[in-house]
User: Fold this.
Amino acid sequence: MRVQHVIHLAIDSCVLHTWQGDSYMPVAGYAPSSGEPSALLSFLRQNVGTIGILVDVLEEVYSRDRIARLGQRDQQAMLERKLARAFPRTEFSTAIVQGRTSDTAQGQDVLFSALTKPDHLRLLIEQLTAAKLPVAGVCSPALLSLPVLEKLQASTANPAAAALLVTRDQEGRLRLAFFRDRQLISSRLLRKSLSARPGDMLHLLRQLDESVRYFDPSFIVSATNPVDVFLLGEPAAAQKDATAAGGGHEGFHLHPVSLDSVSAALGIRAQLHSGQADRLFIEILRRHTPAANYLPAGGRRYFHLGQVRKYAQAACLVLGTAALLGGTWNGLSLMDTRMETREVSNSLDTVTAGVQTHSEYQADSGMDPLQMRRIVSAWQALVAHRTEPREIFELVSRAVDQQPRLQIDAIGWSPLAASNPAPDEGSEAQTATDTASGDDTGTSMPAGSPIRITVRGRVEPFDRSYPLAFAEVESFMQSLRADPRVTSVRARQQPLDIRPGSTLSGEVIDAGDALVSPGLVDSHVHINDPGRTEWEGFQTATQAAAAGGITTVVDMPLNSTPPTTNADAAKRKQDALGDQLHVNVAFWGGVVPGNTKDLAGVRFEIRRKF
Assistant:
């Protein structure tokens, strides 16, 4: 992320750093709890550039989960839904897909994280957005720690699978980030009053042990299951104490590292001293992309607009150059085409003259009959395969006008031959275009020469309603079929490849190891309500049915009192339902000797729960 300005938002300070050739320098700041960011905003307005925000606060939480392997769109929808459930009170949340789970190839590990009390950050984002400043993203030191860990492990002999990256800010607070197999597991920032002081190895080791249990309760630190602990930027005295501790405590391998050595390994030119780990992560933000971005899409809109403007300028330059080259190429191609046309015309004249003077041709022309046949065939193909694209565009355009959400990506056409295989995707319309195209150029498609049109497109914006998307694609195809020149239209690929009658709404629910089956119907159930509710009533019967995966039950005439053999009993039966249903309920009526006349007035209504 090539950012020009970095805003470091900590617990009690907010400092703006700007890029000065080879490193970041602080230029403005304020206290989030009481100060005003006027000086910071004024500097950013005068020096417009991409902004990144580094948040180092206590209220950063992590949780791990796993999801099924899905397509990109369904996976994104599931992650958004899980984030909304895990962190409903903050919009600053993100998910990191970390690859396949260790125990199965069908799932993926996901790390969810969020800033749970983002009041100061939210106010800062609102002020930056109101000033129309381009904010690229929001991240934390933990999301920038992987490049540091990789450099440290590369210089460590026999690195352990688990690692703790320990840094200290200028106020003395400890930040711990826990990794397993180079995957971030969790991170925490300790309060200053709880953080071990530099040199207090006993307190530090106790905090390391507590933090590992907090990060991953299933991970037991031992001599056979060690953890590499990289202490970044500790004072010289503390480094000596850590070196004296050697292997550490029950599997903790302590590695004191100076910030200068880490900076050199990462190509950072800034001179960093003990307690300046914050500056290290600020410098990393320009050179490495964070593992995730807390900033919602709405906060990045001015950054995206700036990127579009840059790409548009580059595209205009490229298109201008391409236009010049294309003009030159077209001129050369036109000259070449005229020469080929002249050669074909001369060959046709020769063939015509040879046919008219057949005897002279046989005696004196000296032309090879096979060559003459190839020339004639080439000329016929040239005439037969001329296509007027205007009619094709008009045909597709009329169909698209009726479906404004249907976005066309590509249109292709080719002469239709019985032996040609159908294309693999898109909607295709086989047409025989009219000879009278209305074009004065006279290059329309001759009658009786069918062509295949391949249309590739998508529904945009897509609101995750697959049945609606199906209906729009089908309506587009019907519009094509309505043209008398079109002989057939068929879809080669549709959304998710499901039937238009499907009730799929776009929501994907991960059932895990649970059994998924259609709702069952039990057509023979004795619900003894009314009259013998203590035996089995609608409340308990429908609850039990729902627990067993049954979504519809059909009640028998017995053993309720009275049995449902007449209209009055049927009414009493349905009045007894009330609000007790947990599944759909239907009813059988009883036929007994002597109640034939009573059956005429029996009317049952199916009561639906869903």
User: Anything to note?
Assistant: Residues 418-447, 496-506 have pLDDT under 50 and may be disordered. The longest helix spans residues 301-356. The two ends are 50 Å apart (CA to CA). The chain has 16 helices and 20 strands.
